[in-house]
Each structure stands twice: as structure tokens, then as C-alpha cells.
Amino acid sequence: MSLLERLNNDMKSAMKNKDKLKLSVIRLVKASLQNEQIKIGRELTDDESLTVLNRELKQRRDSLHEFEQANREDLATKIRDEITILEIYMPEQLSEEELSQLVKDTIAEVGASSKADMGKVMGALMPKVKGKADGSLVNRLVQQHLS
């Protein structure tokens, strides 16, 4: 079942259950997917849909950080709930150990030896972990292994 089909089914159930927050999040994600589809002029692949979903999740995480910095717990709570809903549609996340092993393998694969090679490592690694790991965590692990 594609992401769009899952979103449509979940949207129907959210309407029936009168779950306003879930309905709102699903509608926003569907709108983002449709905007991306219009932008590129064709149906989105699963990979492209995942990219859009990742972007939505990242925006909410950034907002959460800002709200927490401003001591706006009311808004932070709402954003946390939205993040929880969005994570349902993401692929299963890699554990830090799995990710660390993948980083080591990629460093060996590209022959990186210093922090100057970080771009090469990140370029080879990010397609492998797309949607399965947070970019900032990947970045931190690559820096650790290269130093």
C-alpha cells in the first residue's frame, strides 16, 4: 500500500473517530505531497514521498526546538503530538548501533581518513539511511568516526 493510500484510509478513519489533530496533520501532509507532485509534474515515487514526509517531520522538530526555547509548552505539546502522528508513516528507524556500523562501513567503502572527507562519506551514506535516521544523528556519528 502506497503512502498516499495509507493517508487516505487513515484520513477516513480520523473523520469517523472525530480525531481533529490526526485529520489536520494528514491533510497537511497530503497537501505537501500534492504540491510536490504538481511541482515535478508527475506521480511521486515512494522515495520522493518519503522525502516530503521527512521534510514535514524536520519542520516540526525545528518548531519544537524553538517552542521549547521560548518556554511555550502549550505549542510544544501540540507539535510533539503531530510528530508522533507523522512518525507512524516513516519507515522503521535504525538503532544507533546499526547506524554506527553503517557509518563505519561507508567510511571504509569511500576510503575516508579525516574530517576533510566528511562530504564524501555523507554523500554516500545519506541515500542508504534516507528516512531511517535523523540527519543530525548521522552527521554526529560520521564526525565521531572520522576524528
From TrEMBL:
Protein name: Aspartyl-tRNA amidotransferase
GO molecular function: carbon-nitrogen ligase activity, with glutamine as amido-N-donor
Source organism of this protein record: Alkalihalobacillus trypoxylicola
Record-linked Pfam families: YqeY (PF09424)
Superkingdom assignment: Bacteria
